[in-house]
Design a protein that fits this description.
- By secondary structure, this protein is of the alpha/beta class.
- The protein folds into four domains: about 5-160, Alpha-D-Glucose-1,6-Bisphosphate, subunit A, domain 3 (Alpha-D-Glucose-1,6-Bisphosphate, Chain A, domain 3, 3-Layer(aba) Sandwich), CATH 3.40.120.10; about 190-305, Alpha-D-Glucose-1,6-Bisphosphate, Chain A, domain 3 (3-Layer(aba) Sandwich), CATH 3.40.120; about 305-425, 3-Layer(aba) Sandwich (Alpha-D-Glucose-1,6-Bisphosphate, Chain A, domain 3), CATH 3.40.120; about 455-550, TATA-Binding Protein (2-Layer Sandwich).
- About 40% of the residues lie in helices and about 15% in strands.
- It contains 18 helices and 19 strands.
- The protein has helices at about 5-15, 40-55, 90-100, 105-115, 140-150, 165-175, 190-205, 220-230, 255-265, 305-325, 340-350, 360-370, 390-395, 405-420, 425-440, 445-450, 485-490, 520-535, and strands spanning about 30-35, 60-65, 75-80, 125-130, 155-160, 210-215, 240, 280-285, 290-295, 300-305, 330-335, 355, 375, 385, 455-460, 470, 475-480, 500-505, 510-515.
- The strands form five sheets. The chain has a five-stranded mixed sheet, with helices on both faces. Strands 7-6-8-9-10 form a five-stranded mixed sheet. A four-stranded mixed sheet has the order 12-11-13-14, with helices on both faces.
- A hairpin with a 6-residue loop joins strand 18 and strand 19.
- It binds 1,6-di-O-phosphono-alpha-D-glucopyranose.
- Pathway: Nucleotide-sugar biosynthesis; UDP-N-acetyl-alpha-D-glucosamine biosynthesis; N-acetyl-alpha-D-glucosamine 1-phosphate from alpha-D-glucosamine 6-phosphate (route I): step 2/2.
Length: about 550
């Protein structure tokens, strides 16, 4: 026996039986499915988080209860490692194994195997900080999680209802507290002060910023956004919209970053509110994604997605590095995924090193760590900028030769404070965008004109088993089901400027199809044709075949 508190675990575990016939998977962003199915998973994750902390000598682990952009009835949970980054991938498999143990004896035996295989010293302390978003199912799920903590003996801190990025910040702040690398005060107030303080320094002396409208997706971003707005005061006037956090069914419904990105249109609730030329942005349900948009003078909608944010920010940082006299000493690179618009990739590769990796923050984050300054953004608005520890050291010790170099160096140092480097953070990214726009005196329209997006379309296909879809080459090619990739390529060849790929979602039970072409109608047609291929190839019910699939 490994010394696990078997009786305590057993007694509580029996209260959280695993639903029969459900297979759980720790996917792109943890476990995610209908909230009503997740009690047993949350209890088990409570224990897993405790073990992860023990394995890491009592370092604080984070647990976030959220399903982010998914519909309100969904919920989910993800673990955060001590530096505020996503759970180490080898532990994702352990999480999946534990979640799928059919009953308490099997769960206990899986725990024993984990403790043995990973050589966990159970006498070590376990410390966890946890939070949840505003979903109605969150309270009960947190209760199950707390019982998991109780079963294994975790010193747990409840961070309440907050955004995913604030939880990541807290993990890093708690683990660096009192060290020379202290990330910030380990409280929401500390987070707000850090961001707003850096923002105020960065826009000092710039022309007053016009009001920014924020669509909060009726989620937790509305709560954090209101606090941030108070800290920012006049420096960034904010108008919060879609803040109905307690209205049943409102979360992510017809609003939020995922709606804007996938529908490529204004949330209906903003139709009579947004004025032509005014800047606006959407957060998602847990405020880790950001999409900007505006209406031109003819009231035409224009979207500025994660790719546009990457282009804006990367160019700004490159210019600052040069102005500081650090060109050649600090290299800036960009990380994207296959969803990046072809025009954005073209724009970026002409200026910087660019890498393409599979979907999922963890892949982008790790790739970005290889650059001195790594800018990573998914087209869906997820992203941040990482300054490597060596780069931060260089910035700290560098002696500028001129006042202009000194100013640029100061801006770079303040950016390090402004940007939440633990994970993509909609509020921090929004401040970053506002800083760049203020420095460049850009309107949303001028920013938009950096390059023109290629027309594109994203379609979801519901299939019987999305696990049969396997990809390679950073998800740009399918290797399974056999033969399907060749058919997709055959179709793509018929479209001018065509590009398309297919991959299984890691957060929803669907397969995603992306297509681009030179003309919008052709991008739509290509996407629906590929979706039709995917549907038919996988034996979809002909009666349920969506009529738009060609
Ligand atoms: C999560 C991940 C993102 C990913 C998105 C969609 O976002 O953190 O990296 O792009 O899911 O993933 P998939 O296409 O596999 O469903 P969020 O905002 O839902 O946590």
């Amino acid at each position: 026996m490994s010394g696990l508190p078997v009786e305590a675990i057993q007694a509580l575990s029996d209260e959280y039986p695993k639903p029969v016939d459900v297979h759980f998977q720790y996917g792109t962003a943890g476990f995610r499915t209908l909230g009503a199915l997740l009690d047993s998973v949350l209890f088990r994750v409570g224990i897993l988080a405790g073990l992860r902390s023990k394995k890491l000598d009592g370092k604080v682990i984070g647990v976030m209860v959220t399903a982010s952009h998914n519909p309100e009835p969904d919920n989910g949970v993800k673990l955060v490692d001590p530096r505020g980054e996503m759970l180490e991938s080898s532990w994702e498999a352990h999480a999946t194994t534990l979640a799928n143990a059919p009953d308490t004896p099997a769960f206990l035996s899986a725990l024993e195997s984990l403790v043995k295989a990973t050589k966990i010293d159970l006498s070590k302390p376990a410390r966890v900080v946890y939070a949840r978003d505003t979903r109605p199912s969150g309270g009960a799920l947190v209760f199950a999680l707390e019982n998991g903590f109780k079963a294994i003996g975790v010193e747990a801190r409840n961070a309440g209802v907050t955004t995913t990025p604030i939880l990541h910040y807290l993990v890093k702040a708690m683990n660096t507290k009192g060290t020379k690398d202290e990330y910030g005060d380990d409280s929401e107030e500390g987070y707000m002060q850090k961001l707003s303080g850096a923002f105020k320094k960065l826009v000092a002396g710039k022309a007053p910023i016009t009001p920014l409208l924020i669509d909060c997706a009726n989620g937790v971003g509305a709560l954090a956004g209101a606090v941030l707005a108070e800290h920012l005061g006049e420096t960034l006037p904010i108008i919060l919209e879609n803040g109905a956090t307690t209205t049943p069914g409102a979360l992510n419904d017809q609003c939020g970053a995922d709606f804007v990105k996938t529908q490529q249109k204004l949330p209906p609730s903003l139709l009579s509110i947004l004025k032509p030329g005014q800047r606006a942005c959407s957060l998602d349900g847990d405020a880790d994604r950001l999409i900007y948009f505006y209406l031109d003078e003819r009231s035409q909608f224009h979207m500025l997605d994660g790719d546009k944010i990457a282009a804006l920010v990367a160019a700004f940082i490159v210019a600052l590095v040069k102005a500081a006299g650090l060109e050649g000493k600090i290299n800036v690179g960009v990380v994207q995924t296959a969803y990046a618009n072809g025009a954005s990739t073209k724009y970026l590769v002409e200026r910087l090193p660019v890498k393409c990796v599979p979907t999922g923050v963890k892949h982008l984050h790790h790739a970005a760590e290889h650059y001195d300054v790594g800018v990573y953004f998914e087209a869906n608005g997820h992203g941040t900028v990482l300054f490597s520890p060596e780069t931060q050291g260089k910035l700290a010790s560098y002696q500028p030769l001129t006042p202009a170099q000194s100013t640029a160096l100061g801006h770079l140092k303040n950016l390090v404070q402004l940007i939440n480097q633990t994970v993509g953070d909609a509020l921090s990214d929004m401040l970053l965008v506002e800083v760049v726009l203020a420095h460049k005196s850009y309107s949303a329209e001028e920013w938009d004109s950096l390059y023109s997006d290629k027309p594109n379309r994203l379609v979801k296909v519901v299939v019987r088993d999305r696990n049969i879809f396997k990809t390679e080459d950073a998800e740009r090619r399918l290797v399974s089901p056999p033969g399907l990739q060749a058919k997709i390529e055959e179709l793509v060849r018929r479209y001018n400027g065509g590009r398309s790929f297919v991959r299984p979602s890691g957060t929803e039970d669907v397969v995603r199809v992306y297509a681009e072409a030179t003309v919008k109608a052709q991008a739509d047609e290509l996407a629906f044709r590929v979706a039709g291929l995917v549907y038919d190839e996988t034996g979809g019910d002909p009666v349920k075949r969506p009529k738009e699939f060609l």
